[in-house]
Amino acid sequence: MDQPDTQFAPRGDDRVAYQLLGPPPGVSARDLVSTTGVWSHLDIFWEEPASVRWMRRVASFSRLIRFDRRGCGLSDPRPLDGGTMVDHWIEDLLAVLDASGSEQAVLLGTIDAGPLLLEFYARHPQRVSGLIFVFTSACFAQRPDYPEGHPQAVGDALIEMVAQGWGRTEFAASFDPSQADNPAALKWYTKLHRAMASPRAVVENLQISAKLDARHLLPTISVPVLSLGRRDLAIFPAVQSRFIAEHAPGGRYLEIPGRDADMIWEGTDEIIAAIEEFVTGQKPAVVAERVLATLLFTDIVDSTKQLAKLGDAAWREKLDQHDRIVRHTISCHDGRLIDAAGDGTLATFATPGKAIDCARALHPAMDALKIEIRTGLHIGEIELREEGRIGGMAVHIGARVLGYAEAGEVLVSRTVRDVLIGGRFEFSERGVHTLKGVPSKWPLYAVDEPETGEETEAPGLRERLRSRLR
Question: Which of 233, 258, 280 is the last residue of a domain?
Fold first, then answer.
């Protein structure tokens, strides 16, 4: 699914940015508004594959409506008319619904959107056909009759953490722990944060949001309600999500395992299935999503011998250095680390050229560690599974290609070679092989070393990696 054009809904002299997605031609679907609350950026959401996957899947069963409220993202600044943050947010959503021709929609809100959804419903109930609360709250702060809320000290600590960490990798990793070892995802997330708002603006918003209390509106709801809680999420604990379902007439609660504050990485399949059933009224068919990707496998040569020679402690330290180099190199070539178990790694890339450049850079980068690795590549369709995992025959083929690679070699399947014929890479035949468990016989090819002076797509990478070890 390509990124849709950004449109602008008029609100007085201001314009509110919004985007419409799906469903496929011929599919009749309900409107679904998805909002992260006060802060967002429509364009940058499209730069992360997991975010795009979430939007694509939701747009397969709904007409998905997303918007940037005034004061953030692609929309105009908030007006200086004396209106509150909540007033303006409601005005913006109403303008987007009108401009998109949506008479009634399911509203889905996450992060700080809980009170905003409830306030919108209270003022415009005829425009709402259902409410979905995902890892959010009706009231953030503790009250005498609301022990589920955060005590003042905890709230102050969270706001201070945001003030000090907004736009930094450490904060992004704490917000979505499942991606703590994924440099590409953290890089995107910190960019998103910086683009949405400055640290001061975010803190000012949190201070306002911490005072909102929309609990009194829950008993007035007469449309279906679904509330999803994250089992081990500290910022918006599951007990607050459960409170919404318990106090909204007919509310349904579903608890999702994990610690992420976002819904695009951890438990995504279960989340989307719950949303689809709520929106369509039917249980979704379980169909694995498939995408085309280049797979890069790496493996340390003679790792058992080195472990026996160095001992556990020294070998563990060397493995840690190896892992840091691999992660950094994959990130520099726009790849995504999928698995780094033991002495091997698996990463995916959008193009085979970047995967080969990454493999080429990894071999000399290991010189300082006195480690030799072998690398194998294949390109094919993969299944996207829970928590960033992948599967499918292409994964098995790539692993078998690695098994035939020699130390210091970049070995590829014929599929990779054929895709790159006529480009900047040269290949040498390495015979025709039977890949265990894979039909037919497979010609394999080694990527020839570049001519002296030839640069890869990341010049100077070897020197930068060496400096990181010193």
Answer: 280
Residue type, 171: F
Q: How far is CA 278 from the centre of its chain?
A: 23
In this prediction, residue 417 has a pLDDT band, given cuts at 50, 70 and 90, of: very high
> 295 and 265 in one domain?
no
Last residue of a domain, one of 233, 256, 280: 280
CATH of the domain at 203: 3.40.50.1820
Structure-block tokens of residue 69? 């409220």
Same domain for 241 and 342? Answer: no
Using CB atoms within 10 A of its CB, is residue 142 exposed (0-12), middle (13-18) or buried (19+)?
middle
Measured in degrees and rounded to the nearest 5, phi and psi for residue 228 equal -105, 130
Q: Does 334 share its domain with 187?
A: no
Position 457 confidence tier, pLDDT thresholds 50, 70, 90 = very low
Are 270 and 348 part of one and the same domain?
no
What mean pLDDT is predicted for residues 379-397?
A: 85
Say whether both 218 and 298 belong to one domain.
no
* Joined tokens for residue 174: 């704490």
In a domain, 1, yes or no: no
Total number of domains constituting the chain: 2
Strand duo 336-339 + 344-349: pairing: antiparallel
d(C-alpha 470, C-alpha 467), whole Å: 5
Q: Are 367 and 213 in contact (CB under 8 A)?
A: no
Distance CA 195, CA 118 (A): 27
Structural tokens at position 84: 């509150």
Tell me: the pLDDT tens digits for 131-141?
Answer: 999 999 999 99
Structure tokens at 74: 């692609």
Single-letter residue type at 418: D
Q: Is residue 112 part of a domain?
A: yes
* Structure tokens that stand for 272 in this block: 């989307």
- 430 Cβ contact list (under 8 Å, min separation 6): 404, 411, 444, 445, 446
CA dist 297 and 344 (Å) reads 7
In the DSSP assignment, the letter for residue 176 is S
Q: Are residues 219 and 356 in the same domain?
A: no
User: What domain range is 378 assigned to?
Assistant: 289-469
Of 137, 174, 127, 140, the C-alpha closest to 30 is: 127
pLDDT digits (tens, 9 = 90+) for 89-109: 999 999 999 999 999 999 999
pLDDT digits (tens, 9 = 90+) for 32-74: 999 999 999 999 999 998 999 899 999 999 999 999 999 999 9
Torsion 83-159-166-242 (CA) sign: negative
Residue 340 DSSP class? -
pLDDT of residue 369: 86
For residues 330 and 302, membership in a common domain is answered with: yes
Mark whether 388 and 274 lie in a shared domain: no
Is residue 408 predicted with pLDDT exceeding 70? yes
